[in-house]
Specification:
Blueprint: E1 5-13, E2 33-37, H1 51-58, E3 62-67, H2 86-98, E4 102-103, E5 106-107, E6 109-113, E7 123-131, E8 134-137, E9 140-151, E10 155-160, E11 163-167, E12 174-180, H3 187-203, E13 214-221, E14 228-233, H4 239-262, E15 273-274, H5 276-279, H6 285-292, E16 296-302, H7 319-328, E17 336-337, H8 348-358, E18 365-371, H9 373-390, E19 397-401, E20 407-412, E21 419-421, E22 428-429, H10 432-440, H11 446-456, H12 462-470, H13 474-485, H14 492-504, H15 513-524, H16 533-542, H17 548-555, H18 562-575, H19 577-583, H20 588-599, H21 605-619
Parallel strand pairs: 3-11, 14-19
Antiparallel strand pairs: 1-12, 1-13, 2-3, 4-7, 5-22, 6-7, 6-21, 7-9, 8-9, 9-12, 10-11, 13-14, 15-16, 16-18, 17-18, 19-20
Amino acid sequence: MNGPRIGLEIHQQLAAGKLFCRCPSELHERVRGEFVRHLSPTLSELGDVDKAARLESEKGMSFRYQDTESSCLVEADEEPPHRPDEDAIDLALTVALMLGAEPVDEIEFMRKIVLDGSNTTGFQRTALIARGGEILVGGERVRISAVCLEEDAARRVESGGCGATFRLDRLGIPLVEVATEPDIGAPDMARDAALAIGRLLRDTGKARRGIGSVREDINISVPGGARVEIKGVQELGMISSYISGEIGRQERLIGIARVLAERVASAPSGEAADITHLLKGTGSKMVSGAIAKGGKALAIRLPGFAGALGIQKDGGKGLGTELAQRARTVGVKGLMHSDELPGYGITDDEKSAIEKELRCGPTDAFLFLVADGEKGKAAIARVTERAAEALKGVPEETRDPAPDGGSTYSRPLPGGARMYPETDVPPILVTEERLKRLRENLPKSAAVRKKELKERYPGIDEQRISIAVDEREDGLIGEILERICACGAPDPKTASVVFSAVLYTPESKALSKEELTSIFTGLAEGSFSKEAVPAVIAHYAANPGATLASALGAIGAGSVSSGEMEKIISEVVAENKDLISARGEGALAPLMGEVMKRLRGRADGKLVSEALKREMKKLV
């Protein structure tokens, strides 16, 4: 592949119990208690410390954890994990089989070191479920690298200072991860691949819905670049933008590296210079304010970097942004560089004084920041490291998605040193009997289910068929209509009402299958008209334990005799003679509304319309 190489990691929450305890997989806002932890890195199986974990630990963060009704001692890391949830394992294996992947013989959970506070243990439990498989995207094959099962992280609810607060309700919800090979060559293809994998996951009927239930990690590299991971993308429609932005960023960095090589540029050497005395009287409020609080202005010379830090010829950001993002990893903001000066209150004379102090040549650049001593030194060390990486081109790293379609530096790309065996969870043998049972009950694809619905209910339009399948309401609708068949085959009108009521009446989500079946059986038997269905459903939802008889009585929606209907129509027509004389057939709509209001859904709208037209014709 000569162009960009793109791979995806799709993480989908599963509608099963928590992976390592028997708590429900539900989010709660009521907090029962709190505790605080400090996390430290551990050695890997080979005795190494992962560089990403080391960086997180050097931040010196403390983490507050909130206990809820969906968490227990397992989430608090005060009790060993229980045996993994069998439903979650079945679901992960089902996904693997649907992708054509080859399941492993034995599932063994590993510990993946994570020190950002999202897990009380300092690691995430994850297991390989299967390898291989593929999915077709626009006729092109995208290979599946692995299918994994892991526990979701705790929910961050607050950040600030040297700590963060997490809620434990989300921690432990099972996640299936589908990782592709880097077979994707274009941003739009990546979006389509994510859509295709998402549809397959929804076809299981066990993919949780809602904000945060699915997340995508995007791995991108360009020729001459390096693998960069944009982690935690939640908006599917933004995938193309993030990839395009990262491709542009890597191409700019490669171009900058070429220019630096031509200039024989070099990384900063030696310690940073203290230039506080040059800026004590500066007009920059940000700088003077930080110095007044005891901060020191530290500067470094960047040999040969002039012009590489600011906005580039293509309008993209230069190295200045990259360096500033590294400084922020230790909590230092407000980095300034020579390509953007004079500016931000720093004068041309002050810029010249700094250049003289640092002995800058015509092609040299400089940068400075203001912070307390130790934090400033740590920030300068991060910036110096990033400047050295710029000479080579694109560094491998993990980045966070930004709302504008760009990304910001998060941490180094993790390596194999972050993994070591989980000793508290025994291996799980994947038997042929288990795989046989799952293969015999693989979910039908959305395309197959749509085809079956069209054949079974030819009078239902394409839109409702698609919504029913996408929202996975087709099974419920089918069961309701099959039960109605026991009382007599439902006519197309009844099927249409059932589809519309289940799909478009919000209150129906609160009703059981038995309650909905009772309502629609009454409709099929003529106990009330279809116009009363929304009111009946609303009554059931507002009154647990309601019956059809009580609902019809409460809303006055029992069936109406033809004589009573004609009497009401005659009264409405007589009361509106002037309107009929003035507007003729144009008076039908307002009169229809008045008649239906008085009938309160007890008669079919078509029958009422025909009877009303006859009565109006008599008057004319």
